[in-house]
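Tutorial handout. Part one gives the primary structure; part two gives the three-dimensional structure as tokens.
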Amino acid sequence: MNAVSGGPASNFLSAKSGLQTRIATAVPLGLGFLAALYWAPPLLWIGLIGLVSILAASEWAAMAGLGKKAGLFYGLLIVSASTTLTLVAPSLAAPFYPALLFWLLAPALLARAVAIRPAPLHLALGAIVLIPTHLGMVALRDLNPELVLIVVGVVVVADTAAYFSGRRFGKHKLAPSISPGKTWEGAIGAWLAITLYALLLFHFAGGGVKLPCLAQTLSLFWALFGLSVLGDLFESTLKRQAGIKDSGNLLPGHGGILDRIDSLTAVLPAATIFWVFYQ
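Part two.
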């Protein structure tokens, strides 16, 4: 009866099936990511990140209303610009500043429910957001692959903790007009997990990535956590404006590429500026 009417038993089975699908997708992706991070030659790494960027940019273009061919062309333009900057001026910090400025302004845009329209504005913002994401993955890996793992870990730890704590304790909506599934309880659980993550890294990370001061470590990781939430909420805003649930369907249980890297697009500019340019 419950299964037919969509009651508690049906919801539990649906949630369990969804979690199994997410795990079945995440495990091979995670193993492939780790293999590429530690063993791929630099040019292959740039190429793999470029492929991910093309797919993400195509999804971004689709949310602006572009068709598949135009979206692919837009993705190629984004990656061509990123690759050129990577090969010609790998130490250039300038592309990261507009992205960081945008993410610092994002809370005001979200609070005012500002529509990212017309399409040219949406596409220009995509360049501001996606090019530094590509550059950051390359620059951090060049400095130390452990840094990429640490930054990606911020997103994974926060997402995982928010998912489980939100499902277990979630009652108060974080941003109901943007993403009704997110709760304050999920966010608090994620913040606690990130705090524990930062403490473990401070005490056990190697000298190449360890920060000298606990206060600095906590401040940095709390800031990155806040940015990860902004990245997630902003992509949710774009999807709501486009009238879609997921940015794509390439990743079963997860949606599209942007659905997986939305938080990274906000975290990477700040992390790259800190570790590559100003630490």
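Part three, for discussion. The first strand starts at residue 173 and ends at 175. The mean pLDDT is 87.
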